[in-house]
Amino acid sequence: MAAAHGTSPSAGRPPADAPLIARLDYWYGRLEEGLNLLAALSIFVLMIVGMIQILGRTVFDFPIDGYIDWIEFFAILYAIAGISYCQSQGGHIRMEIVLGTLRGRRLWFFESLAVVIGLVVIGLLVYSTWQNFERAWRIGDSSMDIKLPLWPAKLVVPVALATLWLRLLLQLAGYLRLFLDPTRTPVAVPVAQSMAEAARKEIDDAMRALEIEQRQRKRG
User: Fold this and answer.
1) Mean pLDDT throughout 34-48?
2) Which has the closest alpha carbon to 29: 197, 193, 187, 201?
């Protein structure tokens, strides 16, 4: 098993003469970061609501009406809104028993093949989840308790999956670019790291953060 990291977030804004794929990767990465931030904010809000629910129920005997319905309604945001960002970062678990032994064009060919399979699967999921949203919209599907309309939550799923599909399309272009010329710098694709390299990177990041904190303390 190997770790991976994305090339987009760590890199700054590409210059105007950078390859088109690098510029697309940068701006699409900003969209993914926004969706991931939305997912993180939904977790924070649900934590606050949960605290209010506990205090209201136990101290004031005044629970939030339809609390479970609201939690289920907004849970979809943190469950799936950041899925494309995770893909761009290579944050998913990769079992690379075979791919870890490949180099050059063979590696980029099989990476491209895996992305093509992903495009087919995610495309089918986008279609089916969109139909699920349309059905909820058409019949007026609602929650059990307070009759909360469910179509907005069900719309989040095909939108997030469509965002992931476009990220996979961008990664396919990045892998094909490397397949044609393996000497190029990887752009718009997660770069596999060994566990030792990933651990070394985490240590370096921690040391840099510690140095910054020590400088701030000296200035203070």
Assistant:
1) 94
2) 187
Split into its structural domains, the chain has a count of: 1
First to last CA, the chain: 44
Q: Would you state the structure tokens that stand for residue 91, as one six-digit string?
A: 């944050």
How many CA atoms does the CB half-sphere of 74 hold within 13 Å? 17
- What is the C-alpha to C-alpha distance for residues 138 and 30, in angstroms, rounded to an integer? 34
In a domain, 48, yes or no: yes
Contact call for residues 109 and 189 (beta carbons, < 8 A) = no
Enumerate the β-bridge partners of residue 94. 2
Reported pTM: 0.81
Does residue 91 sit within a domain? Answer: yes
Flag whether 141 is in a domain: yes
CA dihedral 203, 208, 210, 214 (to 10 degrees): 160
